[in-house]
Design goal:
single chain; about 120 residues; seven-stranded mixed β-sheet; four-stranded antiparallel β-sheet
């Protein structure tokens, strides 16, 4: 089993930046992919960024390309999401996920979420 704990959310003005962190613990060696998703009440969960555990490929939603950067620190078992040039439409609950493939269907473990509000 893998536990994921997000942090770093908050209130920021448009154009500002935030860095989200996701600390992983447990059987992290079983993880092949990690990702960030976001969800607004009443809407479907949206994939934001994803990467393979070996760093082979990185994927971004079109809406965040050029503004968000996903990265990880293997020594700390931590996944990051650097968010720059934030817009009000980026407001959402952000979730860290880990699993077997870079797709929501392959995610086995989820964090509790961290709220990002751009206003």
């Amino acid at each position: 089993h893998v536990q994921l704990v997000e942090s770093g959310g908050g209130l920021v003005q448009p154009g500002g930046s935030l860095r989200l962190s996701c600390a992983a613990s447990g059987r992290t060696s079983s993880i092949d992919a990690m990702a960030w998703f976001r969800q607004v009440p009443g809407k479907e969960r949206e994939g934001v960024a994803a990467m393979w555990a070996n760093g082979a490929n990185i994927y971004y939603a079109d809406s965040v390309k050029g503004r968000f950067t996903i990265s990880k620190d293997n020594a700390k078992n931590t996944l990051y999401l650097q968010m720059n040039s934030l817009k009000p439409e980026d407001t959402a609950m952000y979730y860290c996920a880990a699993g077997l493939i870079c797709d929501v269907r392959g995610m086995l473990y989820w964090g509790q979420g961290t709220q990002v509000t751009v206003s």
